[in-house]
Amino acid sequence: MNSAPRQLNLDQWDDRYEQLRRDGLREPAYGGPLRRHVVREKDFRLQQLRFDNSPAALRLWNFLLTENQRLHQARAAGHKIVGTMKDLGTVPVMAYALPGLRAFYPDGAWWTPCLMECSDRLLQKAERMGLDASFCPARAMLPALVDGGHFPRPDLLICSSGAVCDDFSAIAQRLEHLGHSILWWEIPRRRRPAAGETACALPGLLAAPQIQVDCVRTELQRVGRALGELAGRTLDDDSLAAGIRAANQVRRRLDSLRRTVYSAPAAPLPALEMLVAEMLAIHFCSDREETIAVLDDLLAEVQSRARRSQFVIGAEAARIFWVNPVADLRAMNLLEELGGRLCGSDFMFSHALDLIPENLPPLEALARSAMADPMVGPTDDRAARIVRECQAGRAEAVAVSRIPGASHCAREGEIIREIVRREIGIPAIEIEIPPVCDAMLPSLASRLRAMVETARSRRAR
Amino acid sequence: MICAGIDAGSRSIKAVLLDTARQQMIASGLTDQGVEQERLAAELFEKLLQEAGLARSRISAVVATGYGRNAIRFADTTITEITCHARGVHRLAPEARTIIEIGGQDSKVICLEEGGRVRDFAMNDRCAAGTGRFLEMVAARLDMSWEKLAELGRQSKKPALISNMCVVFAETEIIGLLADGQPLPDVVAGVQNAIATRVSALAGRFVSQPVYFTGGVALLPGMARALEEALACPVRVAPRPQFTGALGAALSAAAKPPDGV
């Protein structure tokens, strides 16, 4: 069933799928050929992508692309649906600690215009609702929630506010104005403890004043009560501790996956599949247990390839550290087509990859984890981690991809570039990637190609 | 050995023939860009061969660069403008540490290390306000050539302030300024300053001197001065600035590039 690792387009995957079926491929209930997502869900962008050829990658893609169905099925089975907005990896841990709750990430609708190549007109609908292209593509969430055509309307909407991106707050405020009740919880901007203040160590080698962590813990307590009311059961410490341990199972697998892929002499898994896999950390793609199974498969495949020295991208590729997720998935393929490979990533939720402390009272542990969110702290903190990980991954260049309209991206890229250049002296470029980048593909390709050329020329000398 | 470099830019196509033994440009030329890029480039290439009295078979390698490089199928390989401008400017001005290239479609800031190696680069990707396209728009609106436009800019006593970030809105603003009686030279100088300001924002805080200005826009009197003011440092116009990309491509063709591209 195994064949040499390589990337396949959708047509090639049709043949590969038939071959796998003949060879006895066993799939979960959401399995099937990738082509069906184009036919049934109008995920036209898949026709422009290249996918890893492993059954594990097929499972990953099918898991990602069936999330809305999974949520509808959960609703039909009597589960309560919780939309956790602007929250990258905190409230879902709490929600999945309670039976009968399914948390998902409505902001994830920002990939819908890409996947459907804007055929669903979500961005245009968002414009009619007052949110134009000066806002982050996460604005696609607004019509998706209002129309209810993609995922089921949540039973509870929770949104963090405070030190998160301004445009997302604006989107959520608009949603609330349209009659969708939101439970807001606040997170302060992380600062370094002042002299005489009690300091609290956070995951990711960070620190914050204990008073800030206390504030977040109190807020999460309030969120926990609301989740408990929805579930009809109190979210006690034992349940939450179990939820944290389960979330850490996901994080440990992702850590192993990242270490295996990023430290390998060549890439055993393509950049696109790494992006999708890492995204599972945020809300488990609406099924925590299945996330673990998907990652187990992927990890086994990657470890097996690494042992056999079988790679998708060769060792000659320039080692690129990628910052921020891309609005158009095609960009990750493009990097590899132009001679690069991922050797590290910061897709804006690095805190959701760090283990949540298991030796602390669970709410305190979650509060510390939330406070380590790169988006709520100074960019210098984020850049420092990027520098560390660039060094660990022997990065030859850094690509900072801007998300059009996203307020946190406005100047952040420049700061990160400056620190990377100062600390490790490797090229760092900034690129902007819209939800469908076809129109600017030549200029985007030029930038990526120039980055690869620059990295390689520095290697040679 | 004779090598060729072709820079298929958004506004014009430039070509250079390089005698690698003597390290000399033996022919160079340019033509306006058009829809049939490859035909235009081939015609220019043939013209240069004729001028130099060379047969096509004498050309050892052709490298294409520029935004239209992939359309030049007779090239042996393609290399990006970043690498080519760096190589071209380094050959002409080895002391250069920062290169500013303002093209018709985009602008670039390239930081060089000693030896000409690219340390880093930045390209604008948001709008045309920091590119030659802005000047083109103004020239078309005023129905005059770039050269005449630049000449006017030199006569400015008090450059106008163009506040719009968008070329389309800026056009309206320029019409308004002229309607308000602002002298034309001041408006033109204001446009040059606006372009220079956008480019200086692109350069950020990483401008190492000496700074060399290249690309066709560098030929316009007044633009280097506008950049000097925006960057607060001297800016030198590279020798034969419109050909540095093509020269870099020819240099890349001459030796198997160390980066394997």
Q: Helix content range of the residues of chain A, please?
A: 40-55%
Which range does the strand content of chain A fall in? Answer: 5-15%
Q: How many DSSP helices of chain B?
A: 8
What's the number of extended β-strand segments of chain B?
A: 10
Which ranges of chain A are low-confidence, i.e. pLDDT below 50, for 5 or more consecutive residues? none
Q: Radius of gyration of chain B, Cα only, in angstroms? A: 19 Å
Radius of gyration of chain A: 21 Å
Strand order, largest beta sheet of chain B:
3-2-1-4-5
N-to-C span of chain A: 43 Å
| Overall 3D form of chain B | globular
Mean pLDDT of chain A: 94
Put simply, the count of helices of chain A is 18
Tell me what the structure shows.
The complex is a heterodimer of chains A (461) and B (261). Chain A has 461 residues and is α/β, with parallel strands linked by helices. Chain A is 49% helix and 13% strand. Chain A has a four-stranded parallel β-sheet with strand order 4-3-5-6. The longest helix of chain A has 27 residues. Chain B is of the alpha/beta class. Chain B is 39% helix and 22% strand. In chain B, β1 and β2 form a beta hairpin. In chain B, α3 runs antiparallel to α6. The longest helix of chain B has 20 residues. Chain B is globular. The interface between A and B is medium-sized, with 30 and 27 residues.
Write the layout of secondary structure elements.
The complex is a heterodimer of chains A (461) and B (261).
Chain A: E1 7-8, H1 10-22, H2 35-41, E2 51-52, H3 55-65, H4 67-76, E3 80-85, H5 91-95, E4 101-104, H6 112-115, H7 122-128, H8 141-147, E5 156-162, H9 166-177, E6 183-187, E7 199-202, E8 206-209, H10 210-231, H11 237-263, H12 271-283, H13 288-308, E9 318-323, H14 330-337, E10 340-346, H15 362-371, H16 379-392, E11 397-402, H17 412-424, E12 428-432, H18 441-460
Parallel strand pairs in A: 3-4, 3-5, 5-6, 9-10, 9-11, 11-12
Antiparallel strand pairs in A: 1-2, 7-8
Chain B: E1 2-8, E2 12-19, E3 24-32, H1 37-52, E4 59-65, E5 77-78, H2 81-92, E6 98-102, E7 107-112, E8 118-123, H3 132-142, H4 146-154, H5 167-179, H6 184-203, E9 211-214, H7 223-231, E10 235-237, H8 244-254
